[in-house]
Design goal:
Blueprint: H1 8-11, H2 38-51, H3 57-68, H4 72-83
């Protein structure tokens, strides 16, 4: 069952490898909000860096989704970060 929260992987250039099995929405919302204070931006960036301390893809996936749901800024930053990953990580949509 899908939630209303958007899938950060679907919105990124990588695509979502879970396809129709993904529990997040595959509708891209381009709304943006006001830029948060610098301390909040730095906190989000630190949380993103910590996500990649994990070695298991499922944990990374879950943690990135969790960070992205905090705010519009966190969502946009996470998608942008995923877009900058190497093209070799790109996956095709499965459904």
């Amino acid at each position: 069952r899908r939630t209303r929260e958007p899938c950060i992987f679907f919105a990124s250039g990588l695509g979502c490898w879970k396809g129709s099995h993904c529990r997040f929405s595959h509708v891209v919302n381009q709304e943006s909000g006001p830029r948060p204070r610098k301390e909040v931006r730095e906190q989000v960036k630190e949380e993103l860096r910590r996500c990649f301390d994990e070695n298991e893809p499922e944990k990374i996936y879950a943690q990135l989704q969790e960070v992205a749901q905090q705010s519009r800024y966190a969502y946009a930053l996470t998608v942008g970060y995923l877009d900058r990953l190497t093209p070799s990580l790109k996956v095709e949509e499965n459904g």
